Amino acid sequence: MPDTTPLLQIRDLNVGYGQKPILRGASYDVVPGECLTLLGANGSGKSTAMNAICGFVKPTSGSILFEGQETAGQPPHRIFALGIAQVSQARDLFPDLSVEDNLRLGAMRRGGREMAKTLAELYERFPRLHERRRQVTRTLSGGEQQMVAIGRALMSRPRLLLLDEPSGGLSPQFCEEIAQIVDGLKEDGVTMLMVEQNLNLAFRLADRFIVLRDGVVVDGGDVRAMAGDHDAIVRSIYL
Amino acid sequence: MFMQLTLSGLAQGAIYALIALSLTVVYRSTTVVNFGHGDFVMAGAFLSYVLVVLGGVAFLPAGALAVVAMFVLGVLFNRGLIRPILGGPHIGLALMCIAGGYVLRGIARMVWGREVLPMPPVFDMPPIFFGSLVITGDAIVIISTVLVLLLCFFGLLALTDLGKMVQAVYQSPRGARLIGLNVDRFNDVSWGVGAALGALGGILVAPVTLLHPDLGASFLIKGFAAMTLGGFGSLGGAVLGGVLLGVGEQYAGAYLDSSLIEITAYVIIVLVLFVRPQGLLGRKAVVKV
């Protein structure tokens, strides 16, 4: 029987930038092994939620429990050490370092003891990164850079992987590659929380979804249960 | 004469390179240009003076102690004065640096007034003669110390995991946070290293110059000129710019007019900004519209 004890529990989370509230009392759980996608229009608070979980913004109130431990307001390096890694929308790679340096850096603060093994596994998963391991990262295509960003996060052997717009700005061909990568991670049991504007991709990859509107959770459920009625989800996002 | 000028320029340029490098270390980590850095150089020189002349400590341990003290001061300066306002406007950061520098200068003035202090000669080595070329003990110590230091610095940066982490912080602070690095602590250490390297420049120059509380001002300008020439933000460029400035000053002073030595740095800043704003090793900024 699958473990349904939440890995991550968000409770009444309020986050704002200056006087402007972005998340207003959002609550949801992420259970081990699932891929949960956050849906919502621009400005609904999806990326803000990611950044609050990773410690880049301090919540004004509410709770973020990771494996029962309160992480709200902790700095990013402490949260990373617990096993939460993020692939950010901007990727935030180290452009003048090689692909391999970028990947190895992902394991230096966590997972370092198994670095060689993890790197070998990663190259099996991403043969193209192995081919380009000596190449300077800024010379890669957008899709390849996204692979490096995902690979770098995986090098830390995260307990929870956050993916912020993994298909953002990529060609359909690379979107398909990213989808296959996420499929592979799901098969390996990696727990994921994903923000994705490409709804087809989000519905294909996610097990569950929640919809944020103006910082509030307004809908949610099992993606498979809504298989024939994705239009209803789209309506709840935009209307 | 040409070789003698080149040698003098290399010794002077080694000091400029060290100061420009220390400014760049701070700039790359926090994007703050430390306008008070010249006074850190002065403080390093005065600390070593106090330890050698008043404390009776030998020059080598005195220099080491002064470097450690300035490292701690750099860390505390960032932690106490820069970090709390780091997200604010750059003019505030610039003013904080100037104010910090003037506090150091003020302390030196309180103690020594406008006195000019000679450090006893410490590089007491017989000169080496190669034909008409005279290599003084000062030049040997300064050039070899800076050379060893630069090899260690760039070797550490390029070949070690720690160096890769430093580069990661320089290239993307957010990316560095995403891989679990404590960027605030890195910045503290960068300010410490910047202050220590700058102080080392002051310590090396102390025995070959006269010390006074306003000593740092000219070194700050030389550091900026070297950074601009090499490429603002480029570590290698800072070193190259420093060496070229040192040698250029000597050539300009000898072959054109001796008064040019004082203004070479300013002329270089103006010329580089007009002809090649990104400097020799800097990358041209591309703005996507």
From TrEMBL, chain A:
Keywords from the named record: Amino-acid transport, ATP-binding, Nucleotide-binding, Transport
Record's keyword annotation contains ATP-binding: yes
Entries under InterPro entries matching the protein: AAA+_ATPase, ABC_transporter-like_ATP-bd, ABC_transporter-like_CS, BCAA_Transport_ATP-bd_LivF, P-loop_NTPase
GO-annotated molecular function: ATP binding
SMART domains tied to this protein: AAA
Every ABC transporter domain range: 8-239
Family: Belongs to the ABC transporter superfamily.
UniProt-listed PANTHER family: HIGH-AFFINITY BRANCHED-CHAIN AMINO ACID TRANSPORT ATP-BINDING PROTEIN LIVF
Listed name of the protein: ABC transporter ATP-binding protein
Species assigned in the record: Jiella pelagia
Organismal lineage: Bacteria, Pseudomonadati, Pseudomonadota, Alphaproteobacteria, Hyphomicrobiales
